[in-house]
């Protein structure tokens, strides 16, 4: 056995690191991250964390806003659990070294921003780089913990499951598919590639946690970091865990449109502070799509509105204008956005910002219970990788960091209470990774070509507005790509780039399949063939499982 640990956490964002800090009180924690520890979506989060702290606010209002944004598919018990833990988790972050911005009128209280879909000001933030502040604080605290080991440039290949080991052994009395086989659906750890050496190590753990973030890189245009290739979702699916609601991809309405700007998000907090969306002719347009909330409508509505405006005008971007606010206020409230835009020749205190929608957040993922546990015993999923039921069909702004914190805490409490259930040794020997007759891949074009084809295919056929015809074509065009990738998996020695491509393709296929199955428009899934909601069907999630869909 290469590595043995009590807790294996795959991913190093807010969910993974906050859970690592708590599990370190119970045993040895190993965190593996496929690039640097700080290469996470958390690090890029600008807006903040939704939390009820205002005198005019209440948990009931936050829950209502979340349910409204989720368009009928939220799980109300999970919404209640997460919303009501927010104040305690914010207090905990403060104790860990996160210095949230204080209110100018009262330095004893935190400043509360407002974002689309929220009926009150409740966004706790660190100016406009909240995620970066949280990431740094967590990394600093993790570095001081003797029970936590962080391995950078290690990428998970696949999960180790007891069922798989038994079926692949030569044991004569192995169980057939059925009740006895079900008892062996337990995760024992993972095969993990050490990028520097090309060695695939075996990691054995009592508990394995997927905290790998989302899958925004499956699309051509995204606000996500390069690491967001859906790794956790893909490896959980291949291991037999259920996946749900991948059709609900949230497209952030306002990413900076500029040839030198890569994945730079213009925070929804600008619209919360009065910024107005303008069409290419300089006219406001959101009143046509949501007369009540206008520029503060939910992300799904605003993204579709911008998409329609761009198709109507034939232009490449719309504009977000906050220049009517005092320059000093803009510079103080949004220093990061102001400086980045200024460096590109855009003075947001004097002119509007060119923006376009981009893939931003996966509302679906690995199905978990209220404690973050998946279908496989010993396998947990936290953060964007998971589908807890909080977001439903569309995420309410600034609920994502909150979900990561709360579900990490819930997972810790459950693991602590049930530790004896997770410490049983595997009944069979764990086989080492076998490369077989694989050879080095000497043509990187085999990866880069398919990577580009998949992302363009997903953007054009499975984007903001969909149709049954385009989804059907996407399925047909993905089939030979998946076949080729599967063959490469057996023929060539694994690299990080290939593992990411394999996972990206797997998640792309699942998004297409989920979108094809949902015969209605709801939240982040809009199809011209079924433009209305199916109210009779309002509680049904789209669940995908490898064993019953030909995966």
Number of helices: 17
CATH class identity of the domain at 255-358: Alpha Beta
Number of strands: 18
Query: Which percent bin holds the helix content?
Result: 25-40%
Describe the protein's topology.
Blueprint: E1 3-10, H1 14-23, E2 29-33, H2 41-44, E3 49-50, H3 59-69, H4 76-95, E4 112-113, E5 123-124, H5 130-143, E6 148-152, E7 154-161, H6 162-168, H7 179-182, E8 187-194, E9 199-210, H8 231-239, E10 243-244, E11 249-256, H9 269-272, E12 276-278, H10 299-313, E13 318-321, H11 327-333, H12 335-343, E14 353-362, E15 365-367, E16 379-381, E17 386-387, H13 400-417, H14 419-422, H15 445-461, H16 468-491, H17 496-517, E18 543-544
Parallel strand pairs: 1-2, 1-9, 2-6, 9-16, 15-17
Antiparallel strand pairs: 3-5, 4-5, 7-8, 8-9, 10-15, 10-18, 11-14, 12-13, 13-14
Summarize the structure.
This protein has 551 residues and is of the alpha/beta class. 36% of the residues lie in helices and 16% in strands. It has a domain at 255-358: Succinate dehydrogenase/fumarate reductase flavoprotein, catalytic domain (Flavocytochrome C3, Chain A, domain 1, Alpha-Beta Complex), CATH 3.90.700.
Notes on the structure:
- The chain has about 550 residues and is an alpha/beta fold.
- The protein has a domain at about 255-360: Succinate dehydrogenase/fumarate reductase flavoprotein, catalytic domain (Flavocytochrome C3, Chain A, domain 1, Alpha-Beta Complex), CATH 3.90.700.10.
- Helices cover about 35% and strands about 15% of the residues.
Observed structural traits:
seven-stranded mixed sheet, 551 residues, four-stranded mixed sheet, 17 helices, 36% helix, Flavocytochrome C3, Chain A, domain 1, 18 strands, alpha/beta
């Amino acid at each position: 056995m290469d590595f043995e640990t009590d807790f294996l956490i795959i991913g190093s964002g807010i969910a993974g690191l906050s859970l690592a800090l708590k599990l370190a009180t119970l045993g040895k924690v190993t965190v593996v991250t496929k690039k640097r520890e700080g290469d996470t979506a958390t690090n890029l989060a600008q807006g903040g964390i939704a939390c009820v702290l205002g005198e005019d606010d209440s948990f009931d209002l936050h829950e209502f806003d979340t349910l409204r944004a989720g368009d009928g598919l939220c799980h109300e018990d999970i919404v209640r659990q997460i919303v009501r833990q927010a104040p305690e988790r914010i207090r905990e972050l403060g104790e860990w070294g996160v210095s949230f911005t204080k209110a100018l009128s009262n330095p004893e209280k935190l400043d509360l921003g407002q974002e689309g879909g929220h009926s009150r000001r409740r966004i706790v933030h660190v100016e406009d780089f909240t995620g970066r502040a949280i990431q740094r604080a967590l990394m600093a605290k993790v570095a001081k913990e003797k029970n936590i080991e962080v391995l950078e440039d290690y990428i998970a290949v696949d999960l180790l499951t007891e069922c798989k080991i038994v079926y692949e052994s030569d044991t004569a009395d192995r169980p057939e598919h059925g009740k006895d086989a079900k008892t062996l659906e337990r995760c024992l750890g993972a095969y993990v590639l050490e990028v520097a050496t090309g060695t695939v190590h075996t990691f054995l753990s009592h508990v394995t946690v997927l905290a790998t973030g989302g899958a925004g890189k499956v699309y051509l245009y995204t606000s996500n970091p390069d690491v967001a290739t859906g790794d956790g979702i893909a490896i959980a699916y291949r291991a037999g865990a259920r996946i749900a609601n991948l059709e609900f991809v949230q497209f952030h309405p306002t990413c900076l449109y500029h040839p030198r700007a890569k994945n730079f998000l213009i925070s929804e907090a600008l619209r919360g502070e009065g910024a107005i969306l303008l069409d290419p002719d300089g006219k406001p347009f959101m009143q046509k799509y949501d007369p009540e909330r206008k520029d503060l409508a939910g992300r799904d509505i605003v993204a579709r509105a911008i998409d329609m405006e761009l198709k109507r005008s034939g232009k490449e971007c719309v504009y977000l204008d906050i220049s009517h606010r005092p320059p000093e206020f803009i510079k103080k409230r949004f220093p990061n956005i102001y400086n980045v835009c200024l460096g590109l020749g855009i003075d947001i205190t004097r002119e509007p910002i060119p923006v376009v929608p981009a893939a931003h957040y996966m509302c679906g993922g690995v199905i978990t219970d209220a404690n973050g546990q998946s279908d496989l015993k010993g396998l947990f999923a936290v953060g964007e990788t998971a589908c807890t039921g909080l977001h439903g069909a569309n995420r309410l702004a600034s609920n994502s960091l909150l979900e990561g914190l709360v579900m990490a805490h819930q997972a810790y409490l459950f693991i602590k209470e049930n530790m004896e259930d997770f410490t049983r040794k595997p009944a069979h020997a764990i086989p080492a990774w076998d490369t077989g007759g694989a050879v080095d891949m000497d043509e990187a074009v085999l990866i880069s070509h398919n990577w580009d084809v998949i992302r363009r295919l997903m953007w054009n056929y499975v984007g903001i507005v969909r149709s049954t015809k385009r989804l059907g074509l996407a399925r047909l065009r993905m089939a030979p790509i998946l076949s080729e990738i599967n063959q490469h998996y057996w023929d060539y020695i694994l690299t990080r780039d290939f593992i990411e491509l394999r996972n990206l393709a797997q998640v792309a296929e699942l998004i297409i399949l989920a979108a094809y199955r949902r015969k209605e428009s709801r939240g982040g899934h809009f199809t011209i063939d079924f433009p209305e909601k199916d109210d009779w069907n309002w509680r049904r999630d789209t669940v995908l499982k490898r064993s019953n869909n030909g995966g």
